[in-house]
Amino acid sequence: MPRYLLFPGRHHLLTRFQADYLHRFATGGDHDTPDGGHGVTERDHDAAAGGRPVDPSADVTVVWAVTSANHENTRRNPVPYHRREAAIERFSVLAGLRSVVVPVFDTAETDRFAEVTLKNVAATAGLELTPENTVVACSTPQVAAMYARLGFPIAGVEADVDPTPARPWDVLLRLAADDPSWRELAHPATLDVYARYRLDDLVRSVVNDPVVGDEGGLTATRDYRTYAEAFADAAQRKWATVREHVRPGRIVDVGCGAGAVLELADREPTLRESDLIGVEVARHLYEECVHKKAQGFFTNPNVFFYRRNVLGGAVFAPRSVDTTLTFALTHEIWSYGDRMASLRRFVQAIYEHTVPGGVWINSDVCGPDGRDRTVRLRLSTTDGANPARPREDLASLPADQVAAHLTGLSTRARLDQFAVDYRFPFGFRSVDDGTGGLVELPLGSAMDFLTRKDYTDNWLSETQEEFCGLEWADWKALLADVGFEVDPASGPYRNDWIVTHRLAPSAALSRVDGAALDWPVTHVLLVARRPVNT
Hints:
Elements: E1 4-9, H1 16-26, H2 42-50, E2 61-67, H3 81-95, E3 98-104, H4 113-125, E4 134-137, H5 141-149, E5 154-155, H6 168-176, H7 182-185, H8 188-196, H9 199-207, H10 224-242, E6 250-254, H11 260-266, E7 275-280, H12 283-294, E8 303-307, E9 321-327, H13 330-336, H14 340-353, E10 354-365, E11 374-379, H15 399-407, H16 411-421, E12 429-430, E13 438-442, H17 443-450, H18 459-462, H19 472-482, E14 485-486, E15 491-493, H20 496-503, E16 507-510, E17 523-529
Parallel strand pairs: 1-2, 1-4, 2-3, 4-5, 6-7, 6-9, 7-8, 9-10
Antiparallel strand pairs: 10-17, 11-13, 11-16, 12-13, 14-17, 15-17
Helix pairs in contact: 1-3, 3-8, 6-9, 10-11, 13-14
Region (Disordered): 28-53
């Protein structure tokens, strides 16, 4: 008998099949029935549920290498490591196993994954696993092959049995799909831990999330380091704009990024008795918030961070929040959800969780008044290359090549590329004036392109979003319909830095008859209050 059975995997859900398989292996029992099927009987299930004593003569320790241990609340890794570890420990008691649980943090894709895992086990548990003392239990052929190349014997778990039993991830997907059969396949340890910590609701929410990707971000191409740096650079300006409107008490920053604005709120003496709460959906940014709190960035003891998708439903109890802050968020809700329907649900949820007299402060991009009217846009053709046609395969290129390609294009050529990559309707007509740089298009489309044309580092992410979906009149109508009162401090405005540095150097706006047009508004500040008597 080997001394160890290494069982690498994410282990979000444990099954009755695994309990029987591992117990038989650890005690030297036969895995297969004479007819080739797996001999899992009702008696086995009852034993697994009621508990088996560890057989001291077996002398086999199951080493659970829990991969992606630093990930949670993502479609690929919905359950946090500490809950997975709790279920494994309870599973081991009930199944009569001697176990050691080792966290393995996620790494970039590598063909040395097996070596990385073995080194984690050695560093964390002090166990030197070798082909002479260890069998690897793994049903994933690609992963098993990595260990086999190192000389380890392989136990195939589900792959050892024909017909193949339901694998743990398949059982978890049954849970997410509300298929009650998952309970018959899941081990009682999983059922117990899931019930106590409401993990079944968490799994359904995360796996079925229509917005967040497998790794916990809005788009796979977004460079969150760049976003975190941009949030930090703009935090002082944002806080200066909204500070006078903030009502002390329970203050929530929805879409808080890396927590930069809450850091400034934390320094306000008048808010020292307030609760400061950050809500962020992107895993990378949420983890940075938690790291900052652990490192002592905040002096207020009542600072909390939650990883939630606000499109998934209410986050806070009714009438429980004094101030809600949102910066550059509502256009994402519009873009990644069902446009006005999703945005209205979000605004309604904010209204519901706001205390009477409380305030929602929203700063975001804004569409120009009359965004549907046709205008002419003259774009530079001399500030870069002008290829005959835009690339159709930009998404297949590495990120640095995408940025390099875009940087080398003229402003007019970037319009052609934008039309290919933008996921919303975008039409324009070239006007033959001998320069090749004149086009006609709706004003809102013109501003959607112009406000994104320089985002070469996150082009494929930014082209998934619409900036000019709502103009000021639409905002006022929406807020009034939900029940908010619009403070006189609210209104649209133009960011003149953007005009001076991004728009005017390479573009000019005019009416169809050629008369020059001034640059329209680009942003909006909303200070919306819930009436005291509601």
